[in-house]
């Protein structure tokens, strides 16, 4: 057993990766002072996972503790460890918008295109939550902008649905397909049009989105914009050449 160390947080002697009552370790809790004294110890188990499958690196990444992440990465923590649900440190940091942590994880070899059990990648999570800087870093590093989750949604579709203009711009520049459709036939243009995001609609139109694609119910972007009363979006679609007389089957 390794020698004890004086924990400045716990106010007692602990072993560097002592297991707590909930199955994690003191390093899992993200305290930099504990990490600084514990990580250098040769026998520390840096990839120990708690009862939820999270490692110390994952907990630190999720909370944006840059210094702790740096220490753990230097000590050899696995950036690609995943929970049973497929979550990784990169996904957690990306979801919460911690650009510096994302940078460290990418440089340490984190898999950019790992997907969780729902098919969501780090890029998709960053896009869903509107984190432009993280999206930019991931696409520059080579993340796939056209990966689709189990529902058929891509990062571009999630960003368009939520009106994140800057994120949409980044994804379009990175080569995201504006015409990708779910199994129900929904596209990014339909999602943005439904929610009235005129600037996003403009970007998608300029990037080559098909104005007259219809979903499985026969509804086009123009129809859903009209249905929800988004005058500016309707005007932009009409101006771009959307079919005014398209009709659903019912």
Automatic annotation (TrEMBL):
Question: This protein's superkingdom?
Answer: Eukaryota
Cellular component GO terms held in the UniProt record: pi-body
The record's InterPro entries line, in alphabetical order, gives: Ankyrin_rpt (IPR002110), Ankyrin_rpt-contain_sf (IPR036770)
List keywords of the entry alphabetically.
ANK repeat
> Is Thylakoid found in the keyword set?
no
Q: Does the keyword tRNA processing apply?
A: no
Q: Where are the ANK repeats?
A: 52-84, 85-117, 118-150, 151-183, 184-216, 217-249
Supply the Pfam families for this chain.
Ank, Ank_2
Indicate what this protein is called per its UniProt record. Ankyrin repeat domain-containing protein
Provenance organism? Cymbomonas tetramitiformis
Its lineage reads: Eukaryota, Viridiplantae, Chlorophyta, Pyramimonadophyceae, Pyramimonadales
């Amino acid at each position: 057993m390794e020698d004890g160390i004086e924990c400045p947080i716990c106010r007692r002697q602990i072993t560097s990766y002592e297991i707590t009552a909930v199955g994690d370790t003191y390093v899992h809790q993200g305290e930099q002072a504990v990490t600084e004294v514990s990580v250098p110890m040769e026998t520390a188990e840096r990839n120990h996972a708690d009862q939820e499958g999270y490692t110390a690196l994952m907990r630190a990444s999720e909370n944006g503790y840059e210094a702790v992440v740096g220490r753990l990465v230097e000590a050899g923590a696995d950036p690609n460890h995943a929970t049973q649900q497929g979550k990784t440190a990169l996904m957690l940091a990306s979801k919460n918008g911690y650009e510096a942590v994302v940078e460290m994880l990418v440089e340490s070899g984190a898999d950019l295109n790992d997907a969780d059990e729902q098919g969501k990648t780090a890029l998709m999570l960053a896009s869903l939550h509107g984190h432009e800087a993280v999206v930019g870093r991931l696409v520059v590093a080579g993340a796939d902008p056209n990966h689709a989750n189990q529902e058929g949604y891509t990062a571009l579709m999630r960003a368009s649905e939520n009106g994140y203009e800057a994120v949409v711009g980044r994804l379009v520049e990175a080569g995201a397909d504006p015409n990708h459709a779910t199994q129900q036939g929904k596209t990014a243009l339909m999602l943005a049009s439904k929610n009235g995001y005129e600037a996003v609609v403009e970007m998608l139109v300029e990037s080559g989105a098909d104005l007259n694609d219809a979903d499985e119910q026969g509804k086009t972007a123009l129809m859903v914009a009209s249905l929800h009363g988004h005058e500016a979006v309707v005007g932009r679609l009409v101006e771009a050449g959307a079919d005014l007389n398209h009709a659903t089957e019912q």
